[in-house]
């Protein structure tokens, strides 16, 4: 059995080749031996990489023939879809799609958090918000992004739903990248602080509908800032 790190590297290389168009959707996948030589791995490692991409719908097994590369619209694995979304040429579309997903998931999480949050959760939210304000004033962007992500992570955990938390985990890298990009704009950082404060107060008040609306408002503000101040 190939080592997991080597297999994952082979998965990434193969997926990058597909995303870049060096291997074309709809066409047959080259023989595993040829791919193994090209990517500098063993045939066993490449076979396992192909199997893992089959599980994500990127590669389709064709009985009696070589595997076929599926179009992106048929991919089912979150890791593969996110990797494609982060690729060159997909920046605007992927950023807006991510916000749509966050709108659906995080507004519901805030609603649940208003019902289920503990005193400890409220203290953690207050601390994260205070650090966002501190780092905004100091212009410490990486620390600001970390506190921002932490605030949302606390909301998710306060919702007390393991499946909800797991649903956002594959998007972590994309969220970090997007936050780092938008947080370079001081106006956007201030908007984020104002919106986070509204979310915190709604969760503290224990009013589910208000918490949902506050998080939805935050997502709308983020989208508007992204369109007007970053992507225009």
UniProtKB/TrEMBL annotation:
<protein>
    <submittedName>
        <fullName>FadR family transcriptional regulator</fullName>
    </submittedName>
</protein>
<dbReference type="Pfam" id="PF00392">
    <property type="entry name" value="GntR"/>
</dbReference>
<keyword id="KW-0804">Transcription</keyword>
<dbReference type="InterPro" id="IPR036388">
    <property type="entry name" value="WH-like_DNA-bd_sf"/>
</dbReference>
<feature type="domain" description="HTH gntR-type">
    <location>
        <begin position="4"/>
        <end position="72"/>
    </location>
</feature>
<dbReference type="InterPro" id="IPR000524">
    <property type="entry name" value="Tscrpt_reg_HTH_GntR"/>
</dbReference>
<dbReference type="InterPro" id="IPR036390">
    <property type="entry name" value="WH_DNA-bd_sf"/>
</dbReference>
<dbReference type="InterPro" id="IPR011711">
    <property type="entry name" value="GntR_C"/>
</dbReference>
<dbReference type="Pfam" id="PF07729">
    <property type="entry name" value="FCD"/>
</dbReference>
<keyword id="KW-0238">DNA-binding</keyword>
<dbReference type="InterPro" id="IPR008920">
    <property type="entry name" value="TF_FadR/GntR_C"/>
</dbReference>
<dbReference type="GO" id="GO:0003700">
    <property type="term" value="F:DNA-binding transcription factor activity"/>
</dbReference>
<dbReference type="GO" id="GO:0003677">
    <property type="term" value="F:DNA binding"/>
</dbReference>
<keyword id="KW-0805">Transcription regulation</keyword>
């Amino acid at each position: 059995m190939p080592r997991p790190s080597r297999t994952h590297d082979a998965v990434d290389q193969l997926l990058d080749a597909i995303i870049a168009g060096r291997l074309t959707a709809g066409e047959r996948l080259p023989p595993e031996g040829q791919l193994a030589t090209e990517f500098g791995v063993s045939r066993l490692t490449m076979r396992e990489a192909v199997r893992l991409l089959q599980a994500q719908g990127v590669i389709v097994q064709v009985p009696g023939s070589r595997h076929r590369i599926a179009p992106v619209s048929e991919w089912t694995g979150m890791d593969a879809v996110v990797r494609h979304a982060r690729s060159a040429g997909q920046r605007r579309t992927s950023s807006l799609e991510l916000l749509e997903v966050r709108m659906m998931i995080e507004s519901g999480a805030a609603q649940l958090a208003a019902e289920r949050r503990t005193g400890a959760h409220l203290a953690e939210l207050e601390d994260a918000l205070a650090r966002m304000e501190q780092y905004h004033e100091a212009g410490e962007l990486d620390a600001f992004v970390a506190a921002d992500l932490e605030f949302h992570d606390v909301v998710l955990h306060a919702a007390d739903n393991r499946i909800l938390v797991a649903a956002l985990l594959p998007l972590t890298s994309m969220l970090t990248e997007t936050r780092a990009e938008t947080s370079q704009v001081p106006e956007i950082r201030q908007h984020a602080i104002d919106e986070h404060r509204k979310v915190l107060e709604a969760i503290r008040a224990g009013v589910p509908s208000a918490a949902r609306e506050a998080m939805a408002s935050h997502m709308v503000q983020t989208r508007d800032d992204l369109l007007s101040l970053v992507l225009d």
